[in-house]
Design brief:
Layout (H helix, E strand, L loop, with lengths): L1 H23 L1
């Protein structure tokens, strides 16, 4: 379960960065 949580955290961070970049454009 811990591995899945880490994967979720990583995906959330990537999506957050992508959202910020899209907003910046």
């Amino acid at each position: 379960a811990n591995k899945t949580f880490k994967l979720y955290e990583a995906a959330r961070h990537v999506f957050d960065e992508a959202y910020r970049v899209i907003n910046f454009m």
